[in-house]
Amino acid sequence: MAVGLAIPIALVLSPLPSLADPVPPVSAVPADRQPSGTQNGVALIRIIVPDQAAVDRLNDMGVDLAEYKKPTEEGLEVHAVLSPEEAQALRDQGFDLRGTISDQSDVAENQAQRRQALARIAAAEAADSDKLTVLRSEWFTNTGNQRFLSVEVKSSAVDAETVLTVSWDNGPGTEPGSGGTATMSRFTDAGQYMYHRFNSPLPINTAPSKVTISSNRGGTVTVDVKEWLGAPQKAPSPHYVSDFIDHYMDPTEITDRIVGLAAEFPKISEIVDLPNKTNGYRRLAQAQFGGTGASAFYVSSKVYGHEGGNDITFALTNPGSANSPLSVAVNAKAISVSLGTDAAGAVNSTTKQVVDAVNASAPAATLVKASLYRTNTGAAVAPTAAVTALTDGLKAPANISREPFQTKAIRIGRDRDGSKTGVFLYCQEHAREWVTPITCLETAERLLRNYAHDRATKDLVDDLDIFVLPVTNPDGAHYSFYDFNSMRRNMTNHCPENNGDPGRRNSWGVDLNRNFSVGSLTDGYSGASSSCTSDTYAGPAELSEPEAKNEVWLTHQFPNIKFAMNTHSYGGYFMWPPGAYKAAGRELLPRVDFGTENYFWDASSEILSAVQAWRGTGIWPGRTGPVPDVLYSAAGNSADEHWYNRGIIGWDFEVGADLWNPTTKRFEPVGFQPPFAEGHQEAMEFANGQIAILKVASEFADDGKRPTSSLVKVSSGPGTATFTFSVNEAANLYYTLDGSKPNLNSTKLEQAGMREGAQHITVDKNTTVNWFSVDIAGNVERNYDPATGTGNYSSKVVKVG
């Protein structure tokens, strides 16, 4: 546990302006989304609020807040996904909305780029193999007579899934491949594929005569190696390949990729099938009649759309004669309702009568259920309607399964028997965060493809047991890709009948990062909603969702997991537990102890430096720390679940840091689905961060060094003395003031306050202080045994006056 930074922060903000009283209920902000396909102007919008209390109020109202908060001269800037109706409702409540960051129109360019990339992939896969054209194949000598190999090869398959491997001999007459093997990097410029190459020339011992380049798509070519008589080159840095992503990917693509990786590298990886299948990318087929007025009602199929619900039709007809009774007829899957008429031939069947008649008709009731629209009483005369096909409204292509999804993680490590320290990297709990799964995938690719030739990567894979779950929420992510890009939740509809009409289809689902059992909404913590149409809906019960259960199962099934990273977007945050508080009195979950807090801080330096190394992105100090300290309360989040129930040291990334605009001299937010050029950069830099987390875990696994500590006298006055402790690394310190031997039940050194370092202890008489420290890896200072009191502990007399 590393020594933390003491960074006291004081923000003096104006009080919350007078708003309508009393505080409106959650329903005051309509949570409905329009049917998928229209989306009706849903956008990501800036909101300026005066202080944290206003942010908490938005949370309590069920507003769909992004994981973003920034101090401004006027208070705080937060971002929310809002329909026009929701935006107006907030304005009516006195909230200051400042314009749109992005809306559905911004998605079109990403989708077009993705379609182009998929077309390239399909074309490459349709060919027997890709064509490889060798541009250069040379060896040369540098200072000290060290030889190097340089190869450049262009592939006809230009997508990032094409991986080229080079092998070379040890000179004329030697066996092919006897000199070595290396993976090439894909070089792009201005977004265009150029060729594959080594990032730097490879050091070799003997001049080779031939190289063979092989593609994972089946292409192969062997050429002569020429001696290059160019200028001497500097010795290359260790070869390392990266950048295996060239488009946003849906969960099916991502899952296929990790399955392929496990098959390609069976000695150091395998697939773990998580036990709880999701509900599936599926919906009941529905149709609504009578608009949204007094005569409105809707029908829902009894089976999912793809199971036959989409084949059902429904019609409401005027029989054209007087005194006709209301009747329901069914022919196969065609339902026809003949409305009742009075003596003058006018329709007199009410909507409620129609709903009751459909549900009472045995043939019709086996196909559909009819329901009144929201709060309608059904007293109005029923509408007529031509034959209308029910539809589930889902727009994903046929290759996207509608069945429950088998979520998969890839396990990477040389020794996957539970003997190594485990690390759990998981992404896309929230469906609309498209950068996060490609971040996890890039990390997995780097680990596997660099293992054979990069010493640092090999050490990580040999030293750790790594679990990578790129897509935690596959159903919601499919829905975000193909139906409603702002979808945050999964697709499980827990709403009662009056919330089940088609107009609310984009408002169903559970926020998975509010569905866990620690600091939950059920426990009274803030930052989640009980409304089934809220984007922060916590679900009907803790751990109700299969996706959340899968995470918990993995950490219990593999108790060697000691570290975790939950990757979200956007805003550029680096956070850790506790993640929730009760709004009344801001009652936090218990803060982590002093040693663990310092460990979080020390690790943050290493991890964020790695993020910065990619393109210079610096995560702000104000966006680094425990979740509530830098963002807001998130009741029932997964990091708290893993830390408080299993002791797993877990962090939260929010990828997508604000970008500095040198013209406006302002930081500008990037949103959930930035243009892929930006999303790609975010994935690369935060994959750097994930690799750094693995390095932190490896250092933990190999840590056998004992901490050292000292007592530091701070001050003395009339009849008192104040002291504290200094520790050379992140460690917990236990002490006694009564002369007794310290043990693990002795008083533990605490934090003085948020980011304020160690507490100060005051005594009013000469006092013998006995203590020892123990670091996160369990190493005890001076090899002292706190259980028996054997060995040496530290001791010092603090004198008063």
Describe the structure.
Carboxypeptidase that possesses the specificities of both mammalian Cpase A and B. Thus shows broad substrate specificity, being able to cleave Cbz-Gly-Leu, Cbz-Gly-Val, Cbz-Gly-Phe, Cbz-Gly-Lys and Bz-Gly-Arg in vitro. Belongs to the peptidase M14 family. It holds the Pfam family Peptidase_M14. Mean pLDDT is 89; it is low at 1-31, 33-38 and 230-237. The longest helix is centred in the C-terminal third of the chain and has 26 residues, at 676-701. Among the domains are: 26-108, Alpha-Beta Plaits, CATH 3.30.70; 130-218, Immunoglobulin-like; 292-389, no CATH class; 709-798, Immunoglobulin-like, CATH 2.60.40. It is α+β, with helices and mostly antiparallel strands. The protein contains 14 helices and 40 strands. α4 packs parallel to α7 and α10 runs parallel beside α13 (638-646). The strands form 10 sheets. The chain has an 8-stranded mixed sheet, with helices on both faces.
